[in-house]
Fold GntR family transcriptional regulator.
Amino acid sequence: MNARPLGMGEQIAHRLRVEILTGGVEDGTHLAEDALAARFDVSRGPVRDALRQLETEGLVENRRKRLYTRVLGLEGIEELYELREALESLAIRLAIARASAKDWDRVQEIVDRMRAAGELGDVEMFADADMQFHTAFYTLSRNRRLIEAWRPYQHTFEILFEMSDTPDIPAATADHQGFLEIIRTGDADAAVRRLHLHLTLAKGHIRDVLRKTADPSDAVAED
């Protein structure tokens, strides 16, 4: 199934999201609707939609009716992963209690797509499957408000994945397969412990990438 084409507002939000998360713009940069409309050659409507979305995601803040960028930095990354672990731990516990064997079979199909991505060397396909894998916990929790709480942060984590180096897809696939096998035993405590390890490693890698971006000399020193 092909992904739904992004609307203009979503496209603009994606472009700005990448710039904010990768350090393409400085923290506290004023985002004026007129200037952005001219830059992207669109009316102010799509720009307004994009900025509203980024404000929801915490990447833009409103100061006296003027919008400014909020670059995450290392502290912001720490906060994001703390929030994600709290949300996802609850999602896993509820999913284990409520999902059926057939539901987990469908999650297995996602892991199978990861494996296929490794065989093809398709990083984008793997990243998409990785996001589907984790989002499945929220869906299977059957808790609408929990799903809504996760939704604003999905795009941010997609970009954070793209910022990292090309993953070892076979190893990452094996990690997700092991994660799913623990979940299927029904041991929620073990699954949450595995999530903590999974996210701790991911967070550490992103922090390393951000440090190298902030000080490229670090990368040279490590070679």
